[in-house]
Design goal:
Layout lengths: L14 H17 L3 E3 L1 H13 L3 H10 L5 H16 L11 E12 L6 H9 L5 E4 L1 H19 L17 E14 L10 E6 L5 E7 L6 E7 L2 E7 L9 E8 L5 H9 L12 E4 L3 E4 L1 E8 L1 H6 L25 E14 L3 E14 L9 E2 L4 E7 L5 E7 L7
Parallel strand pairs: 2-3, 11-15
Antiparallel strand pairs: 1-17, 2-4, 4-14, 5-6, 6-11, 7-8, 7-10, 8-9, 9-16, 12-13, 13-14, 16-17
Length: 400
């Protein structure tokens, strides 16, 4: 059966950012690589860029983010920042749920932020702008940004910016950092973990550690046309947020590319109510995995039609005070790096995005869920519907 069309549970997601994730995964499938990235991280960063834009560039950003105004984007970003800061006591290491999100801004000393933009940066995005010297200390700024990201992600994201990624032409660097740590509502029994076969897209079979739960334990499950969905909730404790991890398993061992294409044709798929039901799963196995992923997103973004920010008519005049260079800024690169670990205890994940600006001139079989071939996943907060992390596992043994 088809997954029934349901009303989206939130308007806080960007279909553009979710479609971009689909574009990236299609490229990674050809390489046989695992992938994880954060649509939320990209959405907030593009919204911040829009807040400093004008003219056709602003119009294009609003169109791709499906928003009517900067005020609308700021309102959504404010809700996201508030959601990720609720009950997030970073010193509380025994908490069942830890979620944090931080934004940062580094500005070359030859520029001054416009008061209106600085107000948005501080008030909506809770970020502080810092004056730096790219002309003489670019390497030092790279170290500073990397250290900030590493600290904000509990050490999971290291060296977001590579050596030489900033130079004397750099004018602005934005960065955000998302951290998530959740314990399963019902933990897997480590004594039951054992190696099983995992089928790769190229037909190879490898041995991978699989986790399982008590026999005949009921799970949120759904079987649809060509794929199955499984949802596993995280503990909430006193937290009002409700996070779950979803697994999307194609029926065919080599069905992942078709499943991605199916989702890509419906950008709202991941934000809908799936209509899952409680089901006994006599066969229930999930691979344990841990990996990181990084890529430079500018080419993918441009392929999807968002091109003006990367041109000499970038129109970022709302960011900085008028100067000989202020009308010649354009977006150069968009660096993104993510990490995820899924084990018997729960999930730990992190992501960071850093754009840099430079000066310019049927019949149902017996229910089961055995993820023994490439599959997709996401982590979603259920009350808001925000997709925090998403993408695919092609080989659970690959670390990076």
């Amino acid at each position: 059966m088809d997954c029934p069309a349901k009303k989206p549970i939130s308007n806080l997601n960007s279909p553009f950012c979710i479609q971009m994730a689909n574009q990236v995964i299609l490229k990674q499938i050809a390489k046989g690589s695992n992938l994880v990235l954060s649509p939320l991280s990209f959405h907030v960063m593009l919204s911040l860029i829009a807040a400093g834009s004008t003219g056709r560039t602003l119009e294009q950003l609003l169109s791709h983010l499906e928003s009517t105004s900067i005020d609308d984007l700021n309102k959504i970003s404010s809700q996201i920042v508030a959601l990720t800061s609720m009950h997030s006591e970073r010193n509380d290491r025994i908490s069942s749920l830890i979620v944090s999100f931080a934004n940062g801004l580094w500005v070359d000393r030859s520029f001054t932020l416009k008061p209106s933009f600085e107000k948005i940066v501080k008030g909506v995005y809770k970020a502080e702008g810092k004056e730096v010297d790219f002309a003489n200390k670019a390497d030092q700024v790279i170290e500073e940004v990397n250290s900030w990201v590493e600290n904000a992600t509990e050490g999971l994201i290291k060296k977001l910016l590579a050596s030489g990624s900033l130079d004397s032409d750099t004018a602005l660097v934005f960065a955000n950092a998302l951290y998530f740590k959740g314990k399963w509502d019902r933990k897997f029994d480590k004594t039951q973990t054992k190696h099983r076969e995992f089928h790769l897209l190229d037909g190879q079979v490898i041995s991978v550690p699989f986790m399982t739960s008590k026999r005949y334990e009921r799970h949120l499950y759904g079987s649809f046309d060509g794929y199955k969905i499984l949802s596993i909730p995280y503990q909430t404790g006193q937290d009002t947020r409700q996070f779950s991890m979803y697994f999307f398993l194609p029926d065919d061992n080599t069905g992942l590319p078709n499943l991605v294409e199916k989702f890509n044709s419906n950008p709202g798929f991941l934000t809908q109510q799936f209509g899952l039901w409680k089901e006994d799963l006599p066969k229930f196995w999930i691979p344990r995995f841990k990996f990181s992923f990084e890529f430079e997103a500018s080419e993918t973004v441009k392929e999807m039609g968002l091109v003006l920010p990367f041109t000499s008519v970038g129109e970022f005049t709302e960011m900085v005070v008028d100067s000989p260079h202020s009308n010649k800024l354009y977006l150069s690169k968009v660096f993104h790096k993510s990490y995820i670990e899924v084990n018997e205890e729960g999930t730990e994940a992190a992501a960071s995005t850093a754009p840099t600006f430079v000066k310019c001139c049927a019949r149902f079989p017996t229910p089961s869920f055995v993820a023994d071939h490439p599959f997709m996943f996401m982590i979603r907060e259920e009350t808001s519907g925000i997709v925090f992390f998403t993408r695919a596992v092609l080989n659970p043994l690959l670390v990076a």
